[in-house]
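Predict the 3D structure for this chain.
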Amino acid sequence: MTKLIEFYFDFVSPYSFLAYKQICKIEKEMKIEFTYKPILLGGLHNLRKITAPAFIEGKKKYMIDDCKMIAKKFDIKFQFNQNFPINTVSLMRGILTIDQNKKGKYLESFFDAYWSSNLDLSNNDVVKKILGELNIDSEYFFKKINEDEIKNLLKKLTQEAYDKEIFGAPTFIVNNKLFWGQDRLDYALDEYKNSI
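Done. Predicted structure below.
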Protein backbone atom coordinates (compact mmCIF):
# COMPACT_ATOMS: atom_id res chain seq x y z
CA MET A 1 0.00 0.00 0.00
CA THR A 2 1.11 3.56 -0.68
CA LYS A 3 2.48 5.88 1.98
CA LEU A 4 2.33 8.83 -0.41
CA ILE A 5 -0.19 10.89 -2.35
CA GLU A 6 0.89 11.71 -5.90
CA PHE A 7 -0.02 15.25 -6.95
CA TYR A 8 -0.03 15.92 -10.71
CA PHE A 9 -0.12 19.63 -11.47
CA ASP A 10 0.80 22.54 -13.74
CA PHE A 11 1.31 26.18 -12.74
CA VAL A 12 -1.17 27.23 -15.44
CA SER A 13 -4.03 25.46 -13.66
CA PRO A 14 -5.84 27.66 -11.12
CA TYR A 15 -7.31 24.54 -9.53
CA SER A 16 -3.76 23.18 -9.09
CA PHE A 17 -2.93 26.39 -7.23
CA LEU A 18 -5.97 26.07 -4.98
CA ALA A 19 -5.11 22.42 -4.28
CA TYR A 20 -1.47 23.32 -3.63
CA LYS A 21 -2.44 25.87 -0.99
CA GLN A 22 -4.55 23.26 0.79
CA ILE A 23 -1.74 20.68 0.49
CA CYS A 24 0.73 23.05 2.17
CA LYS A 25 -1.53 23.17 5.25
CA ILE A 26 -2.10 19.40 5.19
CA GLU A 27 1.63 18.65 4.97
CA LYS A 28 2.32 20.96 7.90
CA GLU A 29 -0.59 20.06 10.16
CA MET A 30 -1.20 16.39 9.35
CA LYS A 31 2.37 15.34 8.43
CA ILE A 32 1.12 13.66 5.26
CA GLU A 33 3.65 13.47 2.45
CA PHE A 34 2.81 14.35 -1.13
CA THR A 35 4.88 13.46 -4.18
CA TYR A 36 4.87 16.39 -6.59
CA LYS A 37 4.51 15.36 -10.23
CA PRO A 38 4.95 18.28 -12.65
CA ILE A 39 3.30 17.79 -16.02
CA LEU A 40 2.60 19.95 -19.05
CA LEU A 41 -1.16 20.26 -18.98
CA GLY A 42 -1.38 21.47 -22.58
CA GLY A 43 0.60 18.42 -23.68
CA LEU A 44 -1.71 16.13 -21.72
CA HIS A 45 -4.76 17.79 -23.26
CA ASN A 46 -3.25 17.27 -26.70
CA LEU A 47 -2.66 13.58 -25.99
CA ARG A 48 -6.26 13.25 -24.79
CA LYS A 49 -7.62 15.45 -27.61
CA ILE A 50 -9.29 17.68 -25.01
CA THR A 51 -10.15 21.34 -25.50
CA ALA A 52 -9.25 23.11 -22.26
CA PRO A 53 -11.96 25.22 -20.51
CA ALA A 54 -9.74 28.28 -21.07
CA PHE A 55 -10.63 28.10 -24.76
CA ILE A 56 -14.38 27.70 -24.24
CA GLU A 57 -15.80 31.08 -23.27
CA GLY A 58 -18.73 29.89 -21.15
CA LYS A 59 -16.57 27.41 -19.26
CA LYS A 60 -13.83 29.98 -18.73
CA LYS A 61 -16.28 32.43 -17.14
CA TYR A 62 -17.62 29.68 -14.87
CA MET A 63 -14.07 28.63 -13.94
CA ILE A 64 -13.12 32.19 -12.92
CA ASP A 65 -16.18 32.53 -10.67
CA ASP A 66 -15.71 29.02 -9.30
CA CYS A 67 -12.05 29.61 -8.41
CA LYS A 68 -12.90 32.84 -6.62
CA MET A 69 -15.58 31.04 -4.63
CA ILE A 70 -13.18 28.24 -3.62
CA ALA A 71 -10.44 30.71 -2.71
CA LYS A 72 -12.85 32.62 -0.49
CA LYS A 73 -13.95 29.43 1.28
CA PHE A 74 -10.38 28.41 2.08
CA ASP A 75 -9.15 31.97 2.75
CA ILE A 76 -6.63 31.83 -0.08
CA LYS A 77 -5.34 35.04 -1.63
CA PHE A 78 -6.35 34.62 -5.27
CA GLN A 79 -6.60 36.74 -8.39
CA PHE A 80 -7.43 35.21 -11.74
CA ASN A 81 -4.41 36.07 -13.88
CA GLN A 82 -5.13 38.48 -16.73
CA ASN A 83 -2.44 36.72 -18.81
CA PHE A 84 -4.15 33.33 -18.54
CA PRO A 85 -3.40 30.97 -20.16
CA ILE A 86 0.36 31.01 -20.70
CA ASN A 87 2.82 28.38 -21.88
CA THR A 88 4.40 27.02 -18.68
CA VAL A 89 6.85 24.60 -20.27
CA SER A 90 9.92 26.52 -19.01
CA LEU A 91 8.60 26.80 -15.47
CA MET A 92 7.55 23.14 -15.32
CA ARG A 93 10.93 22.00 -16.66
CA GLY A 94 12.49 24.29 -14.07
CA ILE A 95 11.04 22.20 -11.24
CA LEU A 96 13.12 19.30 -12.57
CA THR A 97 16.39 21.27 -12.55
CA ILE A 98 16.64 22.92 -9.15
CA ASP A 99 18.06 21.61 -5.87
CA GLN A 100 15.66 19.63 -3.71
CA ASN A 101 16.04 22.11 -0.84
CA LYS A 102 14.77 24.94 -3.07
CA LYS A 103 11.84 23.15 -4.70
CA GLY A 104 9.31 24.06 -2.03
CA LYS A 105 10.12 27.74 -2.26
CA TYR A 106 10.19 27.55 -6.07
CA LEU A 107 6.67 26.08 -6.15
CA GLU A 108 5.35 28.62 -3.66
CA SER A 109 6.95 31.59 -5.43
CA PHE A 110 5.73 30.78 -8.93
CA PHE A 111 2.26 29.64 -7.89
CA ASP A 112 1.82 32.83 -5.84
CA ALA A 113 3.31 35.05 -8.54
CA TYR A 114 0.79 33.82 -11.10
CA TRP A 115 -2.35 33.27 -9.03
CA SER A 116 -1.99 35.73 -6.15
CA SER A 117 0.05 38.59 -7.61
CA ASN A 118 -1.20 38.52 -11.24
CA LEU A 119 2.36 38.55 -12.64
CA ASP A 120 3.05 37.71 -16.28
CA LEU A 121 5.18 34.57 -16.09
CA SER A 122 5.50 34.48 -19.87
CA ASN A 123 7.88 37.44 -19.44
CA ASN A 124 11.42 36.16 -18.87
CA ASP A 125 12.39 39.33 -16.99
CA VAL A 126 9.67 38.59 -14.42
CA VAL A 127 10.86 34.98 -14.17
CA LYS A 128 14.49 36.09 -13.74
CA LYS A 129 13.51 38.45 -10.94
CA ILE A 130 11.75 35.66 -9.04
CA LEU A 131 14.69 33.31 -9.63
CA GLY A 132 17.01 35.98 -8.23
CA GLU A 133 14.87 36.21 -5.10
CA LEU A 134 15.26 32.44 -4.74
CA ASN A 135 19.05 32.63 -5.23
CA ILE A 136 18.77 30.54 -8.39
CA ASP A 137 21.17 31.49 -11.16
CA SER A 138 18.94 32.43 -14.11
CA GLU A 139 21.62 31.80 -16.73
CA TYR A 140 22.12 28.27 -15.44
CA PHE A 141 18.33 27.81 -15.14
CA PHE A 142 17.56 28.75 -18.76
CA LYS A 143 20.48 26.66 -20.04
CA LYS A 144 19.41 23.63 -18.01
CA ILE A 145 15.72 23.70 -19.03
CA ASN A 146 16.75 23.48 -22.68
CA GLU A 147 18.79 20.32 -22.22
CA ASP A 148 17.33 17.21 -23.83
CA GLU A 149 17.44 15.30 -20.53
CA ILE A 150 15.12 17.81 -18.84
CA LYS A 151 12.85 18.18 -21.88
CA ASN A 152 12.47 14.42 -22.08
CA LEU A 153 11.83 14.08 -18.35
CA LEU A 154 8.86 16.47 -18.46
CA LYS A 155 7.55 14.64 -21.54
CA LYS A 156 7.97 11.36 -19.67
CA LEU A 157 6.02 12.63 -16.64
CA THR A 158 3.26 13.93 -18.91
CA GLN A 159 3.14 10.61 -20.76
CA GLU A 160 3.06 8.83 -17.38
CA ALA A 161 0.01 10.89 -16.45
CA TYR A 162 -1.64 9.96 -19.74
CA ASP A 163 -0.82 6.27 -19.21
CA LYS A 164 -2.44 6.45 -15.76
CA GLU A 165 -5.58 7.78 -17.50
CA ILE A 166 -5.17 11.27 -16.02
CA PHE A 167 -6.91 13.90 -18.11
CA GLY A 168 -6.59 17.11 -16.09
CA ALA A 169 -4.93 18.94 -13.23
CA PRO A 170 -4.81 18.69 -10.37
CA THR A 171 -5.04 14.94 -10.08
CA PHE A 172 -4.18 12.83 -7.05
CA ILE A 173 -3.24 9.17 -7.17
CA VAL A 174 -3.50 7.02 -4.04
CA ASN A 175 -3.29 3.21 -4.17
CA ASN A 176 -3.55 3.42 -7.96
CA LYS A 177 -6.90 5.21 -7.57
CA LEU A 178 -7.39 8.48 -9.43
CA PHE A 179 -8.96 11.56 -7.85
CA TRP A 180 -9.38 14.50 -10.23
CA GLY A 181 -9.85 18.10 -9.11
CA GLN A 182 -9.07 20.11 -6.02
CA ASP A 183 -12.53 19.21 -4.70
CA ARG A 184 -11.47 15.54 -4.59
CA LEU A 185 -8.53 16.15 -2.26
CA ASP A 186 -10.57 15.05 0.78
CA TYR A 187 -11.39 11.77 -0.96
CA ALA A 188 -7.71 11.20 -1.73
CA LEU A 189 -6.91 11.86 1.93
CA ASP A 190 -9.56 9.34 3.01
CA GLU A 191 -8.03 6.72 0.72
CA TYR A 192 -4.59 7.49 2.14
CA LYS A 193 -5.74 7.25 5.76
CA ASN A 194 -7.48 3.96 5.11
CA SER A 195 -4.28 2.50 3.67
CA ILE A 196 -1.91 3.12 6.59
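The chain has a mean pLDDT of 95.
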